[in-house]
Amino acid sequence: MKANEIRKKYLEFFEKKGHKIIPSGSLVPQNDPTVLFTTAGMHPLVPYLLGEKHPLGNRLCNSQKCIRTGDVDEVGDNTHLTFFEMLGNWSLGDYFKKEAIEWSFQFLTEELKIPLQKLAFSVFEGEKENNIPRDEEAAQIWQGLGVKPERIVFLGREDNWWGPAGKTGPCGPDTEMFYWVGQEKAPDAFDPSDKRWVEIWNDVFMQYNRQIKNQKSKIKNINQGLKTENKKEEYEFATLKQKNVDTGMGLERITAILQGKDNVFETELFEPIISKIKSQIANFKSKSQISNIEKEKAIRIIADHVKAAVFILFERVEPSNTERGYILRRLIRRAIRYGKILEIQKNFTSEIAKEVIKIYKDTYSEIQEGENYILKELNKEEEAFNKTVERGLKEFERLSLREVSGETAFLLYQSYGFPIEMTQELAKEKGLELDLVRFKEELKKHQALSRTATAGQFKAGLSDNSEQTTKYHTTTHLLLAALRDVLKKPIEQRGSNITAERIRFDFNFERKLTQEEIRMVESWVNDKIKEGLPVICQEMPLDKAVEKGALASFREKYPEIVKVYTICKDFNKNEGLASCEICSGPHIKNTAELGNFKIIKEESSSSGVRRIKAVLQE
Ligand code: ATP
Ligand code: MG
């Protein structure tokens, strides 16, 4: 079975079970400053898992594009990728454990025809100190379906608990499904430490809310001047009103398994890339010292990293030294560095990117539109990196070192972007000692300084939409409408990033805005704020919304039913329309809540794209 068939089968199966198929959300989370990339299918659904009503109802499913940078050290093994697709189904306060488990079971054993003999399961073992019982319920359901008790293990928080990134919020136990990839018959008892059991699917049951215990009495004590013990904050797990199911299955893993391959790189989602590297890009002629295993790993890493880079570039992220751009840069540079192991002499990342686009052009047809940009950026980055390396090499020679101290290695890394692995290789070549421990200390010191700024950004999980980001979100709708009105052009949003401190908004426009235009945009928005216009949300079929003239982003794929936010003087009489956009929200209720709008910067973002940074002042 090909990956495309599996994806289709999955979606059709859950559609038959009353789920609505929603498109993959963007890889760059919309208006969520707490993570850099979408790491799981649940991520774009956070507002709905927290209780907001989804326009398509309370049973959803999709195939979600994901990026996990946290797995980068695992990439090259048989099962971990940086970019992968996650098949998922959700219940928003609708069905719970019984149906979720039964349907997972049915899909695996009936639709995919996986023999039960090859499957094993883990469930949550419970936590006495937090009063959370062992998940006997889940275990019973599996057994009721014919699973032998010895194929079910109870595991702790590390393995079978899903929790929020913050200290409080929805959480709950999960149950995971494993497949036996060993050559020999699967053992009767499930031993989760045996690596031949590969996790394929995870059903999460959000049923608790982690909250601070006895907060009221504590505050009372403080108010009455009573001493409260300065103990660690205590938490309790309350039962959630809306219980959700959130599941995720890796498409690449299940595809490899069904095709009898022992790793994800041999499926059609990678095979054309790998064979192109082997037959046209790598240089295997010279007698290098490097083992075949190392070469194979380098090929896998290159294929993985370039694929991830293609999908990140598609979101119009540019290589840079901060945030998403930095991750993109690191992926590209790491691919190039592994290219040296294969003795690749020429620029190659864009050649591989062409193959990636071919693989996905039918599934994500929009990716082909981005092809020119993607290839151009890869070439640019590859050339820049080659220059960096050259400069670093010169510097290395110039220092004519007798040993490489940690400080020097860090200087090369920091000022010349010289990867530590290259310094290591050079040192080895020249027979010099390298103080790796000291280098790592330097690096840690530096990271500790910069981490405070980006803390939390790499964690996935539920984040609350603070009031300020909601305000900023509504303001971007006004800003887009103002730009269209002032510049008299069909301006479109090309990206937006909102934090509690500011709006960053990218749009298509070919030149710098004049001071006069900036002032006009500001006062356009401020006028609408002063008028105190209501913000109205409606749900309607996508084609109705488009007919109505609601603005949509051309790169986004929308579900059949969408939310349309209208900002308008008199909604019923259809008078004084300020803005009308398709958007998943959330938004404030009235523009009067916004304060004074101010543009603090207008600059170029990339060719043909401008960037505005703006704030609301009290
Ligand atoms: P593992 O322990 O194997 O790293 P996980 O516990 O991190 O998996 P989940 O977060 O539960 O995985 O994600 C759900 C599913 O997504 C997994 O069962 C797996 O099939 C798939 N998956 C997770 N991480 C990756 C990855 N890096 N590459 C490919 N598929 C993945
Ligand atoms: Mg993992």
General description of the model:
Residues about 450-465 have low confidence and may be disordered. The strands form three sheets. Strands 1, 2, 3, 4, 5, 6, 7, 8 and 9 form a nine-stranded mixed sheet that branches. This protein has 18 helices and 16 strands. It is α+β, with helices and mostly antiparallel strands and about 625 residues long. Helix 13 (about 405-415) crosses helix 15. Helix content is about 40%, strand content about 20%. A hairpin with a 4-residue loop joins strand 10 and strand 11 (about 505-510). The termini are far apart. It folds into four domains: about 5-260, BirA Bifunctional Protein, domain 2; about 270-390, no CATH class; about 400-455, no CATH class; about 465-615, Threonyl-tRNA Synthetase, Chain A, domain 2 (2-Layer Sandwich), CATH 3.30.980.10. Adenosine-5'-triphosphate binds near residues 84, 202, 249, 250 and 252. Adenosine-5'-triphosphate binds near residues 81, 86 and 253.
Bound molecules: adenosine-5'-triphosphate, magnesium ion
Rounded to an integer in angstroms, the radius of gyration calculated over CA atoms is 27 Å
Let me know the CATH homologous superfamily of the largest domain.
Bira Bifunctional Protein, Domain 2
Taking the sheet with the most strands, its summary is: 9 strands, mixed
The count of strands amounts to 16
Whole-number count of domains: 4
CATH architecture field of the largest domain = 2-Layer Sandwich
- Give the overall shape: globular
The CATH topology label of the largest domain is: BirA Bifunctional Protein, domain 2
Beta-strand share of residues: 15-25%
Fraction of helical residues: 25-40%
CATH class of the largest domain: Alpha Beta
Q: List the total number of helices.
A: 18
Q: What's the pLDDT, averaged over the residues?
A: 88
